Amino acid sequence: MKRRPEGEAGLQLKGKAVAIRDFGELENRETVKEVTLHGGDLTASILTYGATVRRLQLGDRDLTLGFDNLRDYELHSPHMGATAGRCANRIANGCFSIGNDEFQLSVNEGGRHHLHGGHTGFAHRIWTIEEASEDSVLLSLVSPDGEEGYPGTVQITCRYTLTKDNTLRIEFSGSTDKPTLLNPAHHSYFNLGDHEDVTKHQIMIPARSYLPVSDELIPTGEIVDVAGTAYDFREMRQVQDEQDSRFDNNFCLRQFRLEKPELSAVVFEPETQIKMEVWSTEPGIQFYDGSSLNTPVPGFNGKNYGPRAGLCLEPQCWPDSPNHEEFACSTLQPTEHYLQITEYRFI
């Protein structure tokens, strides 16, 4: 993949002056850039560290959680706004097989399981700015063969675009030279209101089934009908139910990836009247209600991010899919091209 030079503030990259600045240095002294995008009433700040949406605003209202300095992202961020990968979510015991070949990935969750691509997954790498304009940026990354235990060299791009109709559009495109896993996911924490938590937010997920998980959040292998359970979000309902249920599960939309995005979830905040629709090509969507969130440092405007300060809706393949034949799978062959389109539409 041809590398283009990363821009300084005001560099002409694609017809117009593009706002690019140095955001800070990581502990290893690598420089992280920030690109500011504008589209409709939306403004987004994108970091080259982790291909991260640092801040997303509708007018002057923050829609996502985040931090003001790089060190907090490096030391304290629970993948806040980042691109999780190679394989988002969990792989049990860090083990999987492709054909007759078995692979052992790094285990970075509780010393037992593989989460979000491992210690040096996509969220912890510096991506390269390939193109930038007032409303769009294209970032690229090369993940070498053997990184975190994954086979094959993967080349991936992430394009963020803000449209005139207040949509954040994300396009992941990738290829590999060996059979591997590729399942990136966007990991913003959303809060559309003025409260410290999202318990009063309303949500709809048009899924007829979900994946139950163990105490360690590993799928049990069952695919369970949502009817009559706390996981039935087919009609708009409040995030917090009478049983105070906690949610960190994959909702099964289909068994395959689509060519064009379809409606995957809706979130509505009654007081601000902001609605967010999630459209995606992906076969599943992970709904995490942020119930374990507890960052040790304040975020935007000095806010403390405690339990349920924000919620995540992460379109992706089903978690731990390489270990379950009946799950929508994340395997990518050298003859295939990976393409995911996910849109967060604000209405």
From TrEMBL:
It catalyses: alpha-D-glucose = beta-D-glucose. It holds the Pfam family Aldose_epim. The active site is at 187 (proton donor), 314 (proton acceptor). GO terms for molecular function: aldose 1-epimerase activity; carbohydrate binding. The keyword Isomerase applies. Its EC number is 5.1.3.3. Keywords: Carbohydrate metabolism, Isomerase. Beta-D-galactose binds at residues 89-90, 187-189, 248. GO terms for biological process: galactose catabolic process via UDP-galactose, Leloir pathway; glucose metabolic process. Pathway: Carbohydrate metabolism; hexose metabolism. The keyword Isomerase applies. It is an enzyme of class 5 (isomerase). NCBIfam families: PRK11055.1 (NF008277). Belongs to the aldose epimerase family. This is Aldose 1-epimerase. It comes from Pseudovibrio denitrificans.
